[in-house]
Amino acid sequence: MAERAQIWLKSMPKGTTRSVIMPCRPTCRCRLAAMQGRAVVCALAILGAGCAPAGMPPPGALPAKHTARLFSAEGVLQDGWEHLPLKGQTVYTIAVLDGRPAIRAVGARSASLLVRRVSVDPRRCPTAQWSWRATRIQESAQLDVRRREDVAASVFLLFGDPGFLYDPKPVPTVRYVWTNGRAPVGAVVDSPYLPGTVRSIVLRSGAADQPGWVTESRNLADDFKLAFPEASEMPERIHAVALFTDNDQTGEPAEAYYGEGRVGCMAAAPVNRPDTQ
Fold first, then answer.
1. Under a CB-based contact definition with an 8 Å cutoff, are residues 70 and 79 in contact?
2. pLDDT tens across 16-31, in order?
3. Does residue 119 contact residue 235 with C-beta atoms inside 8 Å?
4. Are strands 17-19 and 173-179 parallel, antiparallel or unpaired?
5. Which residues contact 97 (CB under 8 A, 6 or more apart)?
6. Residue of 211 and 162 predicted with greater confidence
7. CATH number of the domain within which 156 lies
8. Number of domains composing the chain
9. Containing structural domain, residue 45
């Protein structure tokens, strides 16, 4: 299936898109509508700062001998992703941007996300790297204000098992965000909806400081400590990864592209949960 997906993507002209995300399950919207507070933060939190050149580990990271895929356009068909529309539906499609396959996200006054269950030991796999690009950013968004809490692009890592995705439980969640210039790069912002559960690390603030794709390289242990300094230790597993673009609060245009994301491991380590392989 992966080979067919790659052939399919390579056959697409540059700048084209194709939808690959199935509609939400009928029960999803009903269950989520009953959740109090900000639905998207609820679902992710209660579920499911620097840049380095591609191939380079972040400062202080252990050298990775192996890598494993977290997300990619080629893998979205077979990696067990779920689309969770929470308020409207952000439009997620496969696209080719600057010759690179990507997952394109376009806000439609919506808050919805892509979630994949994984099983990653952050001690064996201490680094994460991905490429992304935010092409339209909500200028009035503000991470610490409930009625303005939109992001152009974000990647969530859930350090704990959220259980059932449509009725999740709280787990420490690190969110990497690309937002507007209101939040400085390197800032850690507590969720105004679920403080102490979801904490955002601002990696990009405002328009891209360089044309084209941007590659992020992160040390997972360092980032968990940065986001949750009060925690006595880092959890043993990352249980889910999510991609999220929303504009339900501001209503302003939002568009982002997510390239490939991988974890760097000391030894070969599958990231699929045993029940999803």
1. no
2. 544 444 344 433 333 3
3. no
4. unpaired
5. 14, 15, 104, 133, 213, 257
6. 162
7. 2.60.120
8. 1
9. 2-276
